[in-house]
């Protein structure tokens, strides 16, 4: 079997959950199962300067992983303006003749990229994983209102309140364009029931969306932190530092605990790349106000176990719904209970009182109360740690995806053994 994977970035250039999962899955299919194929990662001049005369560059030493320069992208319409550049990829894809094309994000590739893929690989089964809400929410896929409240789904009126400079018809055209393009896929995947439900609530056909859980690399668990007094009061936040991830709320909660005399430590692990100067100033001020907190900076995947070893709890303080955070799986891989918001994909991933604790989302005072409870309750950490189920690894994810691919290829062959579709039907998702 030959597979073509496409993502909006490569984890070598910018760490992110979607990129990490897609890349790990591709390598597991290749190295553990023997699937052949190609991993194409979109990029822009912000991350890698375009080389003269070509859209393609090597991503590293692997010959089956390449970067594709994809500037000229419209983030509102999810539209790639460089259709000539996309068309230049078609001969390469035709030669590859993939049995399966798996798109892991429409960013940079755009709806035009989906059209190109269908034309260049007309016999292939096409799969898309809906890793987040970009297809629903024109405000960077966050499903947050302009004043920071949770949004329960797009509508012409609510979207215009967030983006008042847009004409109402812009939102309709965006929605129709995305749904029409995604009709090209034989299967849509979601990493959580919650995310699937958000798409269904927005009018997408839930029968076309199946849940396929995320996975993390198998690893030797970090040993529990030595605690002579038995107190479990070391908290850690992992991931990109930004407003949506709730880093500021975590720091405010830590500052509150310090004022109340609650012994604890909070370590922030992650970089501040691509954040605004305004946010970085807020972050610095919040750090100064939280004497028991420290920013440990960005980290490489191979550093995760070492950093995890210094923590008792992993905190996921995101102020948005989240989808299926990989950091939760990483925490469970290392036997760390998780404290997270009580909504969305993160609440689905963490069982309150079983393998972690839920805190009121976006509420620093409420989060502080949960952190205090975690630190001050004897035996709680041990009980929750015992409730952790080992998360799926990439071997299991690769096997599940391969089974899906085979079913789709077989079904497509039976349905249209000789047909080659020359254009994408404009059918609703």
Automatic annotation (TrEMBL):
Gene3D superfamilies, sorted: Glycogen Phosphorylase B (3.40.50.2000)
Record's Pfam families? Answer: Glyco_trans_1_4, Glyco_transf_4
- Provide a Gene Ontology MF annotation, just one: glycosyltransferase activity
InterPro entries named among the record's database cross-references: Glyco_trans_4-like_N, Glycosyltransferase_grp1
From which domain of life does this come?
Bacteria
Domain Glycosyltransferase subfamily 4-like N-terminal: from-to ranges: 77-216
Protein name, UniProt field? Glycosyltransferase family 4 protein
Provenance organism:
Neoroseomonas eburnea
């Amino acid at each position: 079997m030959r597979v073509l994977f496409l993502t909006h970035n490569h984890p070598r250039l910018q760490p992110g959950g979607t990129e990490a999962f897609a890349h790990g899955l591709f390598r597991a299919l290749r190295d553990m199962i023997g699937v052949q194929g190609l991993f194409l990662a979109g990029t822009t001049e912000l991350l890698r300067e375009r080389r003269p005369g070509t859209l393609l560059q090597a991503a590293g030493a692997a010959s089956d992983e390449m970067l594709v320069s994809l500037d000229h992208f419209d983030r509102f319409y999810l539209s790639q303006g460089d259709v000539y550049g996309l068309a230049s990829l078609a001969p390469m894809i035709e030669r590859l003749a993939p049995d399966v094309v798996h798109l892991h994000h429409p960013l940079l590739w755009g709806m035009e990229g989906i059209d190109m893929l269908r034309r260049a690989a007309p016999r292939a089964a096409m799969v898309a994983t809906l890793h987040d809400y970009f297809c629903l929410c024109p405000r960077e896929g966050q499903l947050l209102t302009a004043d920071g409240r949770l949004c329960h789904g797009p509508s012409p009126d609510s979207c215009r309140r967030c983006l008042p400079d847009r004409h109402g018809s812009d939102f309709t055209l965006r929605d129709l364009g995305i749904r029409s393009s995604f009709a090209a896929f034989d299967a849509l995947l979601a990493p959580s029931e919650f995310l699937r439900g958000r798409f269904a609530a927005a009018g997408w056909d839930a029968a076309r969306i199946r849940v396929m859980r995320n996975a993390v690399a198998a690893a030797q668990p970090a040993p529990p932190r030595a605690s002579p007094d038995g107190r479990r009061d070391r908290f850690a936040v992992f991931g990109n530092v930004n407003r949506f991830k709730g880093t500021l709320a975590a720091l405010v909660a830590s500052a509150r605990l310090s004022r109340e005399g609650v012994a604890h430590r909070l370590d922030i692990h992650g970089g501040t790349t691509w954040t605004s100067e305004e946010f970085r100033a807020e972050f610095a001020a919040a750090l100064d106000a939280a004497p028991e907190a420290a920013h440990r900076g960005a980290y490489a995947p191979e550093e995760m176990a070492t950093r995890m070893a210094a923590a008792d709890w992993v905190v996921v303080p995101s102020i948005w719904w989240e989808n299926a955070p990989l950091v939760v799986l990483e925490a469970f891989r290392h036997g760390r209970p998780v404290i997270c918001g009580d909504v969305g994909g993160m609440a689905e991933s963490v069982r309150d009182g079983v393998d972690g604790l839920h805190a009121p989302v976006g509420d620093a005072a409420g989060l502080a109360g949960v952190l205090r409870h975690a630190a001050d309750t004897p035996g709680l950490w041990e009980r929750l740690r015992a409730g952790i189920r080992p998360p799926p690894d990439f071997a299991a994810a690769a096997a599940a995806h391969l089974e899906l691919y085979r079913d789709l290829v077989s079904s497509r062959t039976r349905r249209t053994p000789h047909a080659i579709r020359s254009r994408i039907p404009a059918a609703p998702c």
